[in-house]
């Protein structure tokens, strides 16, 4: 079985699926054919013509008592390749001294193919204690539109638990920060620069907003999570002005805010509205608008949760060392799935080394792939009642 699983992973690495270029649909087609040719019911879901998600299900055996629906999820898109710097073919799936190389070897074609391998093997059994649902997403690296689409369709609504096999080097991720990206714009009134008093300078107004954000009165960054740390906010771009001798009527900046559970979009908008009120009290022609451009929720699973405990102890028994629980600094599709109609525990874990994710000569030891297949299989077969 392992030999076949390695061949599947090699084949998967040989199909380019760098985001935002083309190819995600080709790797999805490969996995779809693999699942359906083994008799696994799989749905082909087109998010957009080149962005495909797959949902594959296996029902529990008829003798199962109180079966749970255990979800497994991963993405098939990868980040681009800096070709000239690679010493291995990034789309070769080469194996050398027990390591497999290729873009996505760590993040996260190995994770996806470990789950697919588990599904192929368990589909042959008729005594499964749980329903198994594999959710394969597109576009995780850019906008998580695949996971968002599946969540909106209700594909995660029947889950009792979800494992996301992102590379975590054997750590167990249970919480992650979110992102709120806002554009703050000021609208003034243009005038000739020789008579600024006839206009309303939007850049001056925007500067006043920035001064408020940099002052002690803007308190969003005092909110903190014990593991994820504080909310952080950065102004990352700025635009404005119409010409060298025109009082600007438009100016805007973009602010990226990394959020924590309990502090998200609503709290960011409230804090900015307070600034708006304060500045309007000082100048009634001041005009400021806030537009939310990006929103990825933060999420957290209760550390006492049974599923997290089962994942941790299963990892411990495979590796024979304690499993460290960690907050994930970056985002995963779990953020989107956490918005499903029904809430369920989400664990982000695999044995795949994350240190080479997104790097030159991305690779993992095949032993980690074998351990991750084992993890998925044991979690699928565990009785959670
Ligand atoms: Zn990833």
Automatic annotation (TrEMBL):
Keyword entries, A-Z: Amino-acid biosynthesis, Cobalt, Diaminopimelate biosynthesis, Hydrolase, Lysine biosynthesis, Metal-binding, Zinc
Name of the molecule in the record: Probable succinyl-diaminopimelate desuccinylase
Listed Pfam families: M20_dimer, Peptidase_M20
Gene3D superfamilies: 3.30.70.360, Zn peptidases
Organism superkingdom: Bacteria
Family: Belongs to the peptidase M20A family.
InterPro entries noted in UniProt: ArgE/DapE, ArgE/DapE_CS, Bact_exopeptidase_dim_dom, Peptidase_M20, Peptidase_M20_dimer, Peptidase_M20A
PANTHER family: ACETYLORNITHINE DEACETYLASE, PEPTIDASE M20 DIMERISATION DOMAIN-CONTAINING PROTEIN
Domain Peptidase M20 dimerisation intervals: 174-278
Reaction catalysis annotation: N-succinyl-(2S,6S)-2,6-diaminopimelate + H2O = (2S,6S)-2,6-diaminopimelate + succinate
Recorded metabolic or biological pathway in which this protein acts: Amino-acid biosynthesis; L-lysine biosynthesis via DAP pathway; LL-2,6-diaminopimelate from (S)-tetrahydrodipicolinate (succinylase route): step 3/3
Signal peptide: none
Keyword Metal-binding annotated: yes
TM helices/strands, residue ranges: none
Cofactor entry: Co(2+); Zn(2+)
Enzyme nomenclature, EC number: 3.5.1.18
Enzyme class: hydrolase
């Amino acid at each position: 079985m392992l030999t076949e699983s390695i061949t599947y992973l090699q084949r998967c690495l040989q199909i380019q699926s760098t985001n935002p270029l083309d190819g995600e649909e080709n790797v999805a087609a490969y996995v779809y054919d693999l699942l359906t040719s083994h008799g696994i019911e799989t749905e082909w879901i087109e998010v957009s013509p080149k962005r495909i998600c797959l949902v594959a299900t296996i029902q529990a055996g008829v003798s199962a008592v109180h079966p749970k629906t255990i979800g497994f999820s991963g993405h098939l898109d990868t980040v681009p390749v800096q070709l000239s710097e690679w010493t291995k073919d990034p789309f070769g799936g080469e194996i050398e001294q027990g390591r497999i190389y290729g873009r996505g070897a760590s993040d996260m074609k190995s994770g996806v193919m470990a789950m697919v391998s588990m599904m192929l093997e368990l589909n042959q059994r008729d005594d499964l204690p749980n329903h198994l649902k594999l959710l394969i997403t597109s576009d995780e690296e850019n906008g998580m539109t695949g996971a968002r689409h599946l969540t909106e369709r209700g594909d995660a609504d029947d889950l009792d638990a979800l494992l996301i096999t992102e590379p975590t080097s054997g750590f167990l991720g249970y919480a992650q920060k979110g992102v709120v990206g806002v554009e703050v714009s000021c609208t003034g009134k243009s005038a000739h620069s020789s008579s600024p008093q006839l206009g309303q300078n939007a850049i001056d107004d925007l500067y006043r907003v920035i001064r408020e954000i940099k002052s002690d009165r803007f308190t969003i960054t005092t909110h903190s999570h014990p593991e994820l740390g504080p909310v952080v906010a950065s102004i990352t771009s700025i635009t404005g002005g119409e010409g060298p001798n025109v009082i600007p009527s438009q100016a805007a900046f973009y602010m990226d805010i990394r959020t924590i559970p309990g502090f998200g979009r609503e709290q960011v908008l409230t804090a900015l509205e307070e600034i708006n009120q304060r500045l309007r009290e000082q100048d009634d022609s001041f005009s400021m608008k806030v537009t939310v451009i990006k929103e990825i929720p933060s999420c957290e699973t209760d550390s006492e949760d049974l599923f997290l405990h089962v994942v941790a102890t299963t990892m411990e028994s495979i590796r024979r060392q304690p499993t460290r629980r960690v907050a994930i600094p970056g985002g995963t599709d779990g953020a989107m799935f956490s918005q499903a109609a029904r809430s369920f525990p989400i664990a982000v874990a695999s044995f795949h080394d994350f240190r080479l994710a997104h790097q030159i000569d991305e690779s993992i030891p095949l032993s980690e792939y074998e351990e991750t297949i084992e993890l998925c299989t044991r979690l699928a077969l565990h009785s959670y009642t």
